Structures are given as structure tokens and as C-alpha cells.
Amino acid sequence: MRLTDELGKRRMLTVVKRTDFGVYLGTKDERVLLPKKEAPEGTEPGDSVEVFLYKDSDDRMIATTRVPAITLGGLAVLGVKDTGKIGAFLDWGLPKDLLLPFKEQTVRVKKGDRVLVSLYVDKSERLCATMKVYGMLRTDSPYKKDDAVEGIIYDTSEKFGAFVAVDNCYSALIPKREAYGELRVGDTVHGRVVKVKEDGKLDLSVREKAFIQMDADAQMILEKMKGLGGKLPFTDKAEPERIKRELGLSKSAFKRAVGKLLKEQKLQIMENSIEILKK
Q1: 213 — phi, psi (to 5°)?
Q2: Using alpha carbons only, what angle is made at residue 133 by residues 196 and 209, rounded to the nearest 5 degrees?
Q3: Are 174 and 191 in contact (CB under 8 A)?
Q4: Residues 51-79: b if buried by 16+ CB within 10 A, e if exposed
Q5: Are strands 170-175 and 202-205 parallel, antiparallel or unpaired?
Q6: N or C terminus: which one in the chain shows less Cβ crowding within 10 Å?
Q7: pTM for this prediction
């Protein structure tokens, strides 16, 4: 086993030498330092210690007994601690923050964001993070149609919709036709499985079934109208794009909710507007 090949992994290594500033692990020919403050008390040559291998601020390989939030090839949601000239820096539980290069970001991130990433070794043999995790997500989820799920958005597409990692590991998509409201990278979403594809990937909706969702939509429309002085400046004949822009609803969902409110005599449709019916 070459230690340089174990970068980013947790490994059980043997203590080969003890010094005043720590212990060396590995073999006589290839070894790595475990600093004194990290070494278990009483560690002696011949003992085995489980460590994680990474590089310190001086780009030297070093061992730690700390358990990072992510290991090589794994997936984890990490917080952005800061940004700089070469990318963002993520908190992964080690003294040296993890670099997320600009080129590995699906959207430009900022301090305070939380993002789903994987860990890889770059061309300079440094550990870095990437948000481009589509090919790393699993397609063997236990979920079936109509199951409720939770996941994080890791990418968005004008053409396809919002890409979601259900349980931070299963591949899913909120198709554009189901992508209502503002869906941003880093958002945690609660959705419903509308389809399990043949390849195991999931299609999700962030909306309930139509007959359940209609009540929530109707209430939202009423609240919106109250905030606008009691009316909407358009009717159910408005263009779908305007309805979605103003209310985050499809035209069909809007018409269902308006129909419910009309039946309940809570509003009236005028020539160019919809108004709350005064009792």
C-alpha cells in the first residue's frame, strides 16, 4: 500500500516511530506524521491507529484521528465557511478547510450556503470538493410512487428542472412541469414521488395531488389578493407564464383553485381582474 494512494481515506496504520512532536505511521520506507495532539495517549511503535490522510496548509501529507464529514468518493452536505479567488472553502471538520473550486460549482456559492458535494483528488494531488455529483448518485432507492421524500437540490436546468439528491444519495429530478415556486441549489425540498423510471431514477413533485393541493392553492390566492388590496390584476384567462410568475402555479392549478373559491362565493371574476367578494 502506497500512502500517496490513500489520500482522502480512513486507514488503519502501524506506528513505526515516536518523537517529541508526534508519531510516524506506515512503514520504514514510507511514513506520515500523526501530530502529538492527535495521537492517542500511550501510543507506542507497533500499535495500530485508524487515521484519515489529507494535506496540511503546507501541502504535506498528514494524518489525523479526527473523522471528517466526507471521505474520498463519498457524498455529504457541507457548509460554506468563506469564498476566495480560487473558489469556496467548506467546513468538513478538519483544521484546513476543503476547497470547492469555481469550476466544480454548479452555481456560484456564498458564505453560509449548504451544498451537496463529493470529494476527489485533483491533478495537483490535493483533496477538493465538487458539486457535480449527478453520476455519483444511486439509482436503487426503496421509494415507490406517491411516497413522501426529502432531498437537497444540487443543480438546476432551464430545460429539465431541478436535480435533487433524495436522502443525499438517490438520483431524482423535479421536472420543469412540476418545478413551481423558487427552487434553488442548496434548498432542502420535501416532495412526492410521481414516477420511478426504468433506470431507477425518481421524478418528484413538490406539490400534493391535485385534489389535496387545491385547498392550499386557494388559500394562497386569497392571501395574495388581500396583500394586493383585495384583487388580482388578471383573470383565469391570463397567459400561463404570467400566472406562474405571479403565483407560482400552473394555469390548470390556478383555475382549479379559482373554481373552488367561486363555488364557495369568496370571489368574483371581473372583466380584467378577480376580486374578493365582499359580504
Answers
A1: -65, -30
A2: 30
A3: yes
A4: bbbbbeeeeebbbbeeebbbbbeebbbbe
A5: parallel
A6: C
A7: 0.71
Give DSSP secondary structure letters for 199-267.
TS-EEEESS--HHHHHHHHHHHHHHHHHHTTSEESS-TTS-HHHHHHHHS--HHHHHHHHHHHHHTTSE
Third-level CATH fold of 3-64: OB fold (Dihydrolipoamide Acetyltransferase, E2P) (2.40.50)
175 within 8 A of 160, measured Cβ to Cβ: yes
List C-alpha distances in Å: 166 to 98, 155, 188, 222.
Answer: 24, 13, 10, 33
Q: What is the pLDDT of residues 216-254, one digit of tens each?
A: 778 888 888 888 888 888 888 888 888 888 887 777 778
- The CATH number of 210-276 is 1.10.10.10
